[in-house]
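agent: user wants the full assembly modeled, not chains individually. Plan: 1) parse entity lines 2) check alphabet per entity 3) run joint structure prediction 4) return tokens. Steps 1-2 passed, two entities, 482 residues total. Proceeding.
--- entities ---
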Amino acid sequence: MKRALLTGGSNGLGRALADLLLQRGYQVVSVDRSGGAAQPAMLHVTCDLADRHAVDRTLPAILAAGPYELAIFNAGASATGRFEDIPLDACLRLLAVNAETPLVFATALMQAGAVERHLCFISSLSHFTGYPGAAVYAASKDVVAAYAKGVRKPFAAHGVSVTLACPGPIRTAQAERHAPPGADAARRMPPEQAARAILDATLGHRRLVIPGAGPKLFALAGWLFPAFVTRQMKRLIFDRLDEAVW
Amino acid sequence: MRSRLLITGATAGIGLAMARRRAAGADLLLTGRQEHAAVRDRLPPGAAYVAADQSSPEAAAGAVRGALDRLGWDRLDLAVLNAGAGHALDPATESAQSIRVTLDVNLAAAIALAQTLLPFLENASGKLVLVGSTAHRGAPGFASYAASKAGLDGLARALREEWRGRVAVQIVHPGPTATGMHEKAGHDPGPIGRMFARPETTAARIEAAIASGRSPVTIPFARYAAADSLTTWMKR
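--- prediction returned ---
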């Protein structure tokens, strides 16, 4: 049976990815801080992905549960508000979950030969702009994006493709928690739609996937006029945030 | 009043070259991993120094904060976060430890320092400069280093807007420079290494970039490598 490794499969985009993988006949190993609904063909591994020691303790079991046809590094946290209002400890935890742990997982899987065909790193549309109001989140997502681009060739030499996913806002509880007051949830993409685009791109060995037409245009605008688009992001998000949330 | 500057990673390479350029006209606080006694001889006379090992981001920021307090400085005109580390290797063989140290030194410590330094910079309407790398778009030979520098770029893009009107934020991406970091990183650049810019040249370029007020600024390899090679050749 085909196996897939997924981080953060209990909620949001991760849950949609897990459902889709199950539908397509994969056995799914999900690593998340909280467990999830019990399903046949799905194994929940509980691990605080912000905790280095927990990651190191859990990795051997995750590697042993492989090999995986694909691995998707989806788990992520956010922190919104003024940079200086977010406690350093929260910043460091966020960096660990979003940036450090995916890189550590990727090299561990490669070294153990535990991933056979595809890796997918979930970054953010902010990679193409800037994200005032979520400076550390934006930094962590740029780490993942540059890493995915860097390892594409060397990992291909081991027969593993690397896909970088840069989704825009997705309709999840997490997005709701971090959005400025009054933001329109209906404009966020349903997680099922983003999951389909991301999984198809991963299985199709694609270098980059930006789900949806709107986000694609936004990425293009950010690529062409980075300073202007970042200033718009400030107006749309940073100036409207009324409190720090982490 | 003389301006007050902080330069991290100032015991060698680009950081040291920047410190030497600025020593005559400003009060300096420099940082490095080593104890003061080990580096005193090479630092510009009169410069203050504090050991701040960025592989422990929180402790490093605390050490810098303590040094500022001991100096009695309540403002900083310029902070250059230049300290960096990395390993050249096949990313499929990189250890968790190497990834963690690289991200801690290059990115997490910069985040901790930026938070710590904000009130000091704000008091002087000062400037925060992050030293990135032309590798920040992704590099197969030093993937985690490049990734950490991309993180700095993302941090700078956000902070430049967040702090607009309070503290100026810039990121400068220098190209390959003959700093000794390549050796430390286990990377032999081969014959092309002879074309790497001298730290003094890169430091001068970074200063010009700071003066321009623009961000991001990429210092292209070809242009200054050519200038350096020409200078060397003329001196022969």
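agent: reporting back. Helices of chain A lie at 12-23, 52-64, 88-112, 135-156, 173-178, 191-203, 213-224, 226-236. Chain A is about 45% helix and 15% strand.
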